[in-house]
Amino acid sequence: MRKTDDELALLRKKGVEALHIGVESGSDPILAERKKGITSAQTIDALLRLDGAGISYYLTVIPGLGGQRFSYMNAVETARMLNKVHPRNIWCLKLKLWEDTPLYKEALAGNFDMMTPEQILKEERLLIQNLSVSDCLFEDTTVLDKYTIRGMLPEQKDVLLRAIDYLLSL
């Protein structure tokens, strides 16, 4: 976001072809609560500027970042944000609470309702249902700590949803 369009174009000219970016969530209330220092609109603007510079991007999102209470909002608003940009890859990363972090302390105090792997998988399913991106690899290598879900969107959207349904039935 601090780079000018000319600086982005120069980076591309110098060989920067792609970036890996942890957007984490597309929900402004969740981003604010987690003190990320950015809004979904700012993320969209920055990613569209990368498009303009010819720089691809691979995005990481974190299902469960809003806890149980904001699971629906996290899925739907993150999908809404992702639908406005052109990611080459969306990777779901498992939420980990690191000791001595604010979120860890919130959870210890009972102010963050950590989700079970099954609840996170349901949130991920809702995210996929609401995605309308194209030419994008969707993957989660941390599902239930032992399975990988991977498919191209939109072509394999139904396959991804069926795989999640199967895992939820186990």
Task: Give the arrangement of secondary structure elements.
Elements: H1 5-13, E1 18-24, H2 28-33, H3 40-53, E2 56-61, H4 71-82, E3 89-92, H5 102-108, H6 117-129, E4 136-143, E5 147-153, H7 157-169
Parallel strand pairs: 1-2, 2-3, 3-4
Antiparallel strand pairs: 4-5
Task: Describe this protein's structure.
The chain is an alpha/beta fold and 170 residues long. The chain has 7 helices and 5 strands. It has helices at residues 5-13, 28-33, 40-53, 71-82, 102-108, 117-129, 157-169, and strands spanning 18-24, 56-61, 89-92, 136-143, 147-153. Strands 1-2-3-4-5 form a 5-stranded mixed sheet. α1 packs across α3 (40-53), α4 runs parallel beside α6 (117-129) and α6 (117-129) packs antiparallel against α7. The radius of gyration is 16 Å and the shape is globular. The termini are far apart.
Widest sheet, order of strands: 1-2-3-4-5
Largest sheet: 5 strands, mixed
Strand content: 15-25%
Poorly predicted tracts of residues:
none
Distance between the termini: 43 Å
Class derived from helix and strand content:
alpha/beta
Mean pLDDT: 96
Q: Quick one: overall form?
A: globular
DSSP strand count? 5
Order of helices and strands: HEHHEHEHHEEH
Radius of gyration: 16 Å
Helix content range of the residues, please? 40-55%
User: What count of helical segments does DSSP give?
Assistant: 7
What structural keywords apply?
170 residues, alpha/beta, 5-stranded mixed sheet, 7 helices, 5 strands, 44% helix, 19% strand, globular
